[in-house]
């Protein structure tokens, strides 16, 4: 089934689109993730827009090899969750609420052993900056969801 764009989901229970912070979902702790199947891509999703997080989350739940272990709306929350959950890939919006924090977050997460970063943006012209900050790739977050998923998988490949 071909999917061309990220579907616009509606926030689930506990999601407050006006708050701009958090996902409203409980975040799993790092202990115990050894029970997951081998080859599972553990994904940290970071986007300021709860609608984008919900849409990506809904799509990823249909993928057997991808699992969202944490979601964040800003860099500070993302770093704390990365410490607790140990993601193998971080999917990071470059245009987070505070100017420059998206690139700083990419830089910080890409330095962590075992964590690849895929940067996202709707705005062109950020590819070189994202790659220089340590991103594996830059994807258009309003574009083809299959391209986003394929890039996440490629970044997690050994």
Name some characteristics of this structure.
158 residues, alpha/beta, Rossmann fold, 5-stranded parallel sheet, 5 helices, 5 strands, 18% strand
- Architecture in CATH? 3-Layer(aba) Sandwich
Structural shape: globular
Number of helices: 5
CATH topology: Rossmann fold
- Summing up helix and strand content along with how strands pair, one would put the structural category as alpha/beta
Largest sheet descriptor: 5 strands, parallel
CATH class: Alpha Beta
Strand content: 15-25%
Total count of strands: 5
Low-confidence regions: 1-33
Radius of gyration: 14 Å
Total domain count? 1
Indicate the mean pLDDT. 82
* H/E topology pattern: EHEHEHEHEH
Spatial strand arrangement across the major sheet: 2-1-3-4-5
Helix fraction by DSSP (H/I, runs of at least 4): 25-40%
Name of the CATH homologous superfamily: Response regulator
Distance between the termini: 27 Å
